[in-house]
Amino acid sequence: MKMGRLLTIIAVLSLSLLVFLIAFNSTILGDEKASESTTETLISQIQDLQKEIEALKERISKLESEQKMTPTVPEDLPSVNSTPRVITPAEPRAIPQNLPPVNTTPHMNQLPKGSVQGEINGMTYYIIPLQDQSVDK
């Protein structure tokens, strides 16, 4: 609908511009013969433009009717009520094993020299130096 209005506005503006230019040109020249020939030319151009406008209106109405006919949802999509397809792997990728529990608390004899153990809110933490303090700087 907007496209039809736009084309109509463009056609009317171009027609009025053409009429203005020819009328302005004939008044400047002041020729009666020029005004008679320009009047005939204007009439034929107006008729041509009106035919073009009608052809464009028909084309727009045809395109709009085709647009109304096309479905908005593709037909190959599943319906809303269909059950989803469940894809399961052929065999499990991870096999659970019964492993013994691992103690993550380091033994004090395994910590580097200079390490300090502390506790905050019941959580144990360790301060471990990045380099040996016995190394000369």
Task: Chart the SSEs and their pairings.
Layout: H1 2-29, H2 32-69, E1 116-120, E2 123-127
Antiparallel strand pairs: 1-2
Architecture overview:
The structure is a single chain. The protein is mainly alpha-helical and 137 residues long. It has a domain at 2-69. The protein has two helices and two strands. The chain has helices spanning 2-29, 32-69, and strands spanning 116-120, 123-127. Helix 1 (2-29) packs antiparallel against helix 2 (32-69). The mean pLDDT is 78.
What is the rounded Rg?
44 Å
What is the general shape?
A: elongated
H and E string = HHEE
Question: Which strand-content bin applies to the residues?
Answer: 5-15%
Give the tally of β-strands: 2
